[in-house]
């Protein structure tokens, strides 16, 4: 689906709570005054290039040269003026101002481009915080088109960031220290706690890998923690990439560690957090660190949402957000997140950043965002007080001194998932010390909340200077330490605390239960109670009037005296307001008057205060507090109606409030249509229509045309010919200013006339206006002024035209100078009026089960609709509503896998006529539900089961196995098998066959990278352990350095052929994954994997593309990459796998071990356009490591069912025979499958579980064992994903060890003698000789020693 400025989804909360959970301190930044009104300021446009091509970045252009489509960002020029936000004292108002300014600017400036994207049918996501749109898989043509919009500043490539990975992670422990953590002592945090400042009333956040919410040091500090009532994740947790199931989780441990340093304290000695009484919320934007997840998290930080992504509320934003992520390349500077940082700071959010861990690269090693002018970033020092060697040095962007400050970061103990604690080292650990310090500062000095500049200045002035001029700077501010060591005691001691005290308390109901979400207002300052009903405010010394209010309760007012430096407690018990029942009906208010399906809510009330109407009567009922006037918000669920608000005064007696929303002018509500003052003009004559006139105001004869003379075709959404001014078609020397004027229309019988038309307007410095004349053309007024792109159906109000008899409209295109175009079609004038008829509505139900049937097509005449499960919780599945003419109507009902139904309905005008229907369907069952047999390898067995149709319609049944599994005999180890060729491989003939000399072909440019070295065993990808069949020509999975060949600096294609019969694959082979070795990747780039089927000589002309997939490659060496890619090779065919490097940025992995078929290479850039054996290029020892994983169409070769197909009438049964043939398998063990009876029913297919236990022949034995590793810490651990190559006299096989390090394989003694070779990533290999002993298990364990270099 396309995205249109919508809220981003997040997981559903574990516990649904009606009240919002928030703790915000609404104190004026630097005691600034609050304006009486605040509204978003006009957007400011930056200078942008005039030509579309100049706006497209070189990286995007390069991608389009290599591929037909690509992802790209569209950056818009307009930015709102957020400066006034800093003068707003109220925390909620300040955040709302920033949010409104950003969203309104984005909506307005993106509208034209969004229309283009919708028309192109591409996937896109809009972001308001940066005023940008991400387009997925867009074409060069589309990129050029959107770049032509005046609002677009740039079209650029995607961005990638990473966690600033700790340079060291020590093993976890649960032991608590005997004292506070060294980092807390180093910044003097305990001294601040002793003064009573612990972060209370402050909310911190991080954008990281997530947080383990169950960790004992973090759980009770989570803002969404409700004690025994569980968790509320509304406004408290954002799962950016969908990595967690509802509640906060951590995919790495990085985010949990960072959060622990900010707030962690388990109350039992593990006091790890700087601000232990602060609350935390989180967004896991760096679970992936993708640009989209980071931007979405940045938006959520500014305006948190409910767990389902709805109702953004800037008032619930955090005060401080930690960011321990960024670019890892030393010294790399970019402006990603610059708009987000500006928005955060405008809203009063303090961002803490990590400077980076590239210090060993020397000076100028800090990278973005920590290196940027806009960020405040921390370097790291250790327990010895010395700067950490890994801490990145400055200068940063534009010579800025970086880092800004230094904090503890080397050997920091904090929380990790699972309730444990561990020491990590990195600037990622320093930054949360800074964030926690600001939380202590702001809790101690509320006057500083939101004052980013003042806070940074105080941090600078109180830091402990350290003299180090090795990278430039002064003793007080240098590019190693920044301003110096963080000292939170000095920070607080120098804060503006004098003259302030604190007001704290709890708001409860009359029974003592906490009231969450209550507003505590003291003058211009306010706080919102958290889940425990608690609040805390910093107030000036003196007397204050406190007003506490919450929906459903009576307001309470108290007077308190606040003493400087002291804490005053005020607990308030609110009385429940008595309620009265408000009932009413919601009906159409534009003429028909029929009931509407609608939701009724109340402004200012929790979301739980809501009611829905009965869609057949329009009636609703809701309980509201007495003695108050409430604003009802009525939101019709029916298309074509807008939301309506109405006030209702609620007294002590039941009250009625009927509401009648009107149909919108766009006229999409059912039962309404445009009633015109004349016929719709479709411009099909190819010339100026009768009664219409064209005027050339420029005198260039470049005017409106109607014959598509420039070949643009109709882009408006209409069909056939159209009217257009094609500025692009008139060329670079043309100029256009021309009008198209309608004939006169008599609108004396219309009350609110509208102009409707389809259009396609590409703005480029021109304008496209609609003008209105009420006096036959004597005077004109512009009613639509367009200077940005527009597309599709357009509705324009014609003010004052109702009741007039001489009305004209004109379409005025001007300032055209080799711009784009304006096309219009289907011009109509009229008003949205009711059409005679009524609604037929009801439920489509299942005749067998009585359940509602969704997605059924309901048709009456030319009208149709689809049944669904509507949003209204009181209406079940299968609901439909359809407008049709009044009188007797034949209504038909059709749904997949059901028999069609029909009903004759007498439809009443201006009313809802209810008609329910039941649809028949077949319903299958099987008996028995399982079949179990045992047989020696090579033997057969059989069984049978019965299929019965228990439904109400006939069934055409197909019976087939749908799944399979295998457990090898005598072992629980899950072993992956990489299957080599089982026979002599099929040779393929290349275009260069017979030409053995490289020089004979005149090719050059092929070469190797680096020097040869010891081969390394890469980590096995998960696909090698997954179900399915993996095949290879590689006898070893090792990757050797300096061995692979590529076209140096140019395109390289590495290929292998796999003839299916060589691997004993019967039938088709559906590829799911391709894994291949990687020798080296120089810099972040992309590769492509293509699947082909070969028919003839090995040439591209004989290769049919089956599937393709791209893979992103980060810098790496001697690894294995797994790429999901799909394509199906036909039975008996030769599959070709091609891996492509377009940019000359990497080398595939290879070794010199034997291979069962040649490795091939091709490169246009190096004069080898067709696949050529690598040996023929002079590199006989370059054998590509490549594996292909997939499923065979004969998924269960040992199982056959007869008959495979038959028909059953309702109540009939059939017997199915099952033949089990163990000669079709190669290993003893237990084979299981599920045989499914598919009868084309709407229900789950019944299944018979089939199990065949296969015992070994007498001459067979098993070889098995475990591969363990002895680590550098002298620990012995099982090695999952290790390779065990079994080289036999008849055939070879490569096994991949399971989670316990185990492997197992049965073989006949005829395959003796065996050679075993075990290897694993990071461990030198070990080899052994072995023999199969019939009837026995021979165990060969491997203990590999980790390479400790």
From TrEMBL:
> What are the UniProt keywords, alphabetically?
Hydrolase, Protease, Serine protease, Signal
Q: Name one GO molecular function term.
A: serine-type endopeptidase activity
Q: A GO BP term, please?
A: proteolysis
What Pfam families does the record point to? CarboxypepD_reg (PF13620), Peptidase_S8 (PF00082)
The segment annotated Disordered runs over 391-413, 854-875, 988-1023
As given in the record, the signal peptide range reads 1-38
Where does the Peptidase S8/S53 domain start and stop, copy by copy? 199-466
Source domain of life is Bacteria
Q: Give the Low complexity compositional bias ranges.
A: 989-1003
InterPro entries (alphabetical): Carb-bd-like_fold, CarboxyPept-like_regulatory, Peptidase_S8/S53_dom, Peptidase_S8/S53_dom_sf, Peptidase_S8_subtilisin-like, Peptidase_S8_subtilisin-rel
Give the active-site positions.
208, 254, 428
The record's family statement is:
Belongs to the peptidase S8 family.
NCBIfam families the record matches? choice_anch_J
State what protein this is by name.
Peptidase S8/S53 domain-containing protein
Upper lineage ranks? Bacteria, Bacillati, Actinomycetota, Actinomycetes, Micrococcales
């Amino acid at each position: 689906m396309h995205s249109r400025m919508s809220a981003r989804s997040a997981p559903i909360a574990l516990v649904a709570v009606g009240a919002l959970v928030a703790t915000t301190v609404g104190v004026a930044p630097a005691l600034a005054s609050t304006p009486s009104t605040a509204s978003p300021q006009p957007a400011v446009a930056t200078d942008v290039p005039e030509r579309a091509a100049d706006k497209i970045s070189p990286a995007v252009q390069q991608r389009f040269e290599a591929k037909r489509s690509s992802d790209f960002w569209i950056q818009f020029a307009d930015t709102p003026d957020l400066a006034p936000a800093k003068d707003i004292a109220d925390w909620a108002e300040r955040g709302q101002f920033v949010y409104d300014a950003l969203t309104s600017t984005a909506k307005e400036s993106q509208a034209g481009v969004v229309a283009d994207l919708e028309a192109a049918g591409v996937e896109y996501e809009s972001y308001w915080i940066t005023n940008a749109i991400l387009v997925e898989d867009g074409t060069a043509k589309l990129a050029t088109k959107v770049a032509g919009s005046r609002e677009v500043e740039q079209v650029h490539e995607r961005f990638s960031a990473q966690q600033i990975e700790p340079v060291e992670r020590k093993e976890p422990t649960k032991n608590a220290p005997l004292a506070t953590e060294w980092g807390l002592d180093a910044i003097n945090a305990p001294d601040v706690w002793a003064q009573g400042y612990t972060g209370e009333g402050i909310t911190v956040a991080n954008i990281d890998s997530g947080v383990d919410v169950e960790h004992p040091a973090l759980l009770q500090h989570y803002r969404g923690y409700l004690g025994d009532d569980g968790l509320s994740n509304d406004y408290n947790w954002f799962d950016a990439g969908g990595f967690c199931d509802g509640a906060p989780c951590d995919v790495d441990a990085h985010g949990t560690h960072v959060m622990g340093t900010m707030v962690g304290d388990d109350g039992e000695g593990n006091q790890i957090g700087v601000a232990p009484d602060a609350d935390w919320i989180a967004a896991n934007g760096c679970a992936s660190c993708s640009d989209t997840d980071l931007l979405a998290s940045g938006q959520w930080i500014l305006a948190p949402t409910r767990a389902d992504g709805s109702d953004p509320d800037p008032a619930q934003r955090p005060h401080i957000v930690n960011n321990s992520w960024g670019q890892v390349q030393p010294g790399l500077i970019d402006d990603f997140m610059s708009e987000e940082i500006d928005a955060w700071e405008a809203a009063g959010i303090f961002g803490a950043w990590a400077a980076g861990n590239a210090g060993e690269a020397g000076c100028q090693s800090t990278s973005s965002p920590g290196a940027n002018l806009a960020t405040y970033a921390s370097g790291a020092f250790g327990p010895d007080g010395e700067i950490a060697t890994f801490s990145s040095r400055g200068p940063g962007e534009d010579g800025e001194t970086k880092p800004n400050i230094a904090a503890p970061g080397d050997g920091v103990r904090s929380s990790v998932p699972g309730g444990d604690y561990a020491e990590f080292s990195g600037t990622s650990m320093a930054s949360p010390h800074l964030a926690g310090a600001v939380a202590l500062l702001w809790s101690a000095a509320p006057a500083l909340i939101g004052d980013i500049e003042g806070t940074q200045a105080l941090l600078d002035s109180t830091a402990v200077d350290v003299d180090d001029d090795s990278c430039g700077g002064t003793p007080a501010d240098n590019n190693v330490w920044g301003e110096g060591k963080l000292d939170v005691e000095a920070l607080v001691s120098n804060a503006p605390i004098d003259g302030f005290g604190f007001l704290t308390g709890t708001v409860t109901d009359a029974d003592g239960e906490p009231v969450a979400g209550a507003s505590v207002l003291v003058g211009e300052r306010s706080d919102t109670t958290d889940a425990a009903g608690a609040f805390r405010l910093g107030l000036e010394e003196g007397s204050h009037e406190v007003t506490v209010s919450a929906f459903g309760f009576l307001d309470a007012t108290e007077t308190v005296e606040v003493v400087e430096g002291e804490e005053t407690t005020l607990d308030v018990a609110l009385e429940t307001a008595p309620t009265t029942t408000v009932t009413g009906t919601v009906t159409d208010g534009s003429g028909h008057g029929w009931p509407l399906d609608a939701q009724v809510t109340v402004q200012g009330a929790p979301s739980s205060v809501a009611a829905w109407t009965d869609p057949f009567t329009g009636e609703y009922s809701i309980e509201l507090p007495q003695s108050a006037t409430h604003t009802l918000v009525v939101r019709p669920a029916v298309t074509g109606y807008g939301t309506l608000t109405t006030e209702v005064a609620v007294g002590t007696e039941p009250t009625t409030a009927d509401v009648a929303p009107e149909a919108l002018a766009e006229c999409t509500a059912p039962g309404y249509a445009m009633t015109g003052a004349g016929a719709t003009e479709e411009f099909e004559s190819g010339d100026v229509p009768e009664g219409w006139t064209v005027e050339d105001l420029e005198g260039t004869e470049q005017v409106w045309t109607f014959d598509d003379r420039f070949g643009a075709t109709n882009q408006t959404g209409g069909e056939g010919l159209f009217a257009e001014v094609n500025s692009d078609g008139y060329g670079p020397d043309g100029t256009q200013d021309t009008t198209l004027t309608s004939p006169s229309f008599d609108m004396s019988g219309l009350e609110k006339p509208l102009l409707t038309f389809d259009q396609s307007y590409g703005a480029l410095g021109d304008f496209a206006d609609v003008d209105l004349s009420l006096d036959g053309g004597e005077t004109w007024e512009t009613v639509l002024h367009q200077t940005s792109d527009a597309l599709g159906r357009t509705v324009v109000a014609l003010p004052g035209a109702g009741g007039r008899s001489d009305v004209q409209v004109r379409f005025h295109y001007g300032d055209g100078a080799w711009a784009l175009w304006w096309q219009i079609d289907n011009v109509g004038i009229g008003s949205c009026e009711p059409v005679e008829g009524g609604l037929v509505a009801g439920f489509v139900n299942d005749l067998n089960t009585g359940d509602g049937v969704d997605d059924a097509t309901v048709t009456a005449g030319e009208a149709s609709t689809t049944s669904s499960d509507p949003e209204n919780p009181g209406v079940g599945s299968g609901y439909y509503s359809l407008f049709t003419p009044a009188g007797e109507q034949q209504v038909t009902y059709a749904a997949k896998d059901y028999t069609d139904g029909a009903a004759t309905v007498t439809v009443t005008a201006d009313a809802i006529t209810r008609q329910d229907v039941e649809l028949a369907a077949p319903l299958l069952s099987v008996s028995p539900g399982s079949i179990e047999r045992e047989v020696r390898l090579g033997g057969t067995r059989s069984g049978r089961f019965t299929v019965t149709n228990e439904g109400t319609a006939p069934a055409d049944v197909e019976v087939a196995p749908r799944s399979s599994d295998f457990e090898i005999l005598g072992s629980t180890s899950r072993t992956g098998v990489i299957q080599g060729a089982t026979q002599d491989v099929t040779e393929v003939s290349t275009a260069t066959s017979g030409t053995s000399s490289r020089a004979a072909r005149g090719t050059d440019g092929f070469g190797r990278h680096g020097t040869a070295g010891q081969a390394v065993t890469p980590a096995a990808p998960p696909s090698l352990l997954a179900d399915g069949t993996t095949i290879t020509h590689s006898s070893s999975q090792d990757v050797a350095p300096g061995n692979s060949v590529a076209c140096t600096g140019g395109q390289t294609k590495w290929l292998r052929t796999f003839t299916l019969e060589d691997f004993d694959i019967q039938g088709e082979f559906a590829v799911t994954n391709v894994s291949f070795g990687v020798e080296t990747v120089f810099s972040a780039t992309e590769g492509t994997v293509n699947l082909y089927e070969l028919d003839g000589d090995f040439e591209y002309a004989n290769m049919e593309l089956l599937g393709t997939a791209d893979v992103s490659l980060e810098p790496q060496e001697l690894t294995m990459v797994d790429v999901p890619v799909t394509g199906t090779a036909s039975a008996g065919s030769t599959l070709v796998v091609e891996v492509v490097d377009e940019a000359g940025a990497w080398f595939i992995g290879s070794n010199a071990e034997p291979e069962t078929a040649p490795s091939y290479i091709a490169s246009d850039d190096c004069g080898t356009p067709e696949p050529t054996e690598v040996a023929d290029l002079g590199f006989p020892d370059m054998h590509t490591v490549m594996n292909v994983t997939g499923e065979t169409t004969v998924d269960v070769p040992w199982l056959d069912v007869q008959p495979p197909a038959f028909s059953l009438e309702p109540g009939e049964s059939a017997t199915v025979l099952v033949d089990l043939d163990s000669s079709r398998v190669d290993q003893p063990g237990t084979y299981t499958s599920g045989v499914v009876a598919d009868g084309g029913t709407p229900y789950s297919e019944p299944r018979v579980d089939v199990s065949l236990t296969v015992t070994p022949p007498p001459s067979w034995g098993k070889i098995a064992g475990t591969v363990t590793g002895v680590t550098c810490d002298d620990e012995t651990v099982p090695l999952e994903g290790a390779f065990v190559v079994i080289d036999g006299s008849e055939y070879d096989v490569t096994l991949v060890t399971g989670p316990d390090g185990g492997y197992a394989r049965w073989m006949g003694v005829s395959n003796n003698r065996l050679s075993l070779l075990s290897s694993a990533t990071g461990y030198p290999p070990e080899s052994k000789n072995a023999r199969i002993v019939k009837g026995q298990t021979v165990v060969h364990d491997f203990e590999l020693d980790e390479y400790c270099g």
